[in-house]
Fold this sequence. Notes:
By secondary structure, this protein is α+β, with helices and mostly antiparallel strands. The protein folds into four domains: 56 residues, no CATH class; 91 residues, Beta-Lactamase (2-Layer Sandwich), CATH 3.30.450.20; 85 residues, no CATH class; 162 residues, Heat Shock Protein 90 (2-Layer Sandwich). The chain contains ten helices and twelve strands. A hairpin with a 3-residue loop joins strand 11 and strand 12. Helix 6 runs antiparallel to helix 7, helix 7 packs across helix 8 and helix 9 runs antiparallel to helix 10. It is elongated. The model has no long low-confidence stretch (mean pLDDT 79).
Amino acid sequence: MINIYSIAPESFSEEEIALLRGMANEIIFSISALLSKESNKTLACIQAARKKVFEESPDPILVIKADGTILEANPSAEKKLGQSSDKITGTNIYNIFPNTSPASKHFLNPLNSGSGNISLELNSSGTDYLVSLSPLKNQEEETFLFVARDISEQKVRKTETIKASKLAAMGELSVGVANEINNLTNGLINYTQILSEEIEETTGKDDQSRELLNSIIKESERISQIVQQLLFFNANHAQTKEAVKINKIVEDSLTLTKNQFRYDAIEVSVNFPDIVPSVQVNVQEMQHIFLNLLSNARYALNQRYSGKDPQKCIEIKGEVTARNGQSKLKVVCTDFGVGIHPNIISNVFEPFFSTKPNGVGTGLGLSICLSIVEDNEGTLEIESILNDHTSITMELPIV
């Protein structure tokens, strides 16, 4: 406020008063213009920041009307939905997210009823999103901000965590069952040996009953061997490394899987040098690798051959080689199954990537195998020809 005054009466003429009033009006107008300019500048900064967030956000963002019509879509929405902004705008949001549960089918209703921000899960083309909906204020018509975050991988991780906990519980249960089976098998072997010795004393060594009892002893010892391998695999060993023979780990892994291969008519050949050098590894981790490779090979062969076939086989070969002046033990596991398409073979070591259908593979097997091999200063490589073969090559430094 500007105040101009005089204590003397009639100090200003009418012309001077009119001039002062004009000057005051000009000053007020200038101040108002300056304030308006600063306000516009601030508003422009806010709008620029909002535009930057809208355009550069990794999450799809849509502006929608109360009836679900899409007014605006950011670049992430175009990428995720596989459509240009021109095609997205004007489309109804319910057409973009049709695969929703009955409970969230009319998800805009609460907002139209005056509710504040809401969050819910929606699905579009097989992708799960966590959606945040909030009303936009100071708009000519009622509109809402629709922000969708892809949580598909998060849900997969949650599912795999639950599955892993179930497997851990099953592992603990199997240890108890295996111990019981082992005790019963040992008792069966002991009693059968006693009975066999008594028969030998009374009827001689060539008695047919004694041969049958020896067969029982042999099969019982095989059961005991399998149980011991299960107990070893489930044991919570310390992550210590020791010098071991890889061919022995391969043999132990085949002991656990040979009945499956026999049932599926899969032949397995193993070829290692007469003298196999030792490698410094964790035995349990190495067994995990071979069990995974054998499982993948079995699946690929069964996909290609429904029954018995000469080509339905797995070959495991070991040899000593050298790389960068250091001696290595190279192990190649080859199956002659369906193979892997060249367009996706570069992805097979990525976590959660699987060539198997949903619910069959987790996509974690080979990524874990690669991590284990690299922790042991080795390499793991894959080579495949579609409908011919797949070879996994592992190299480990020799002790």
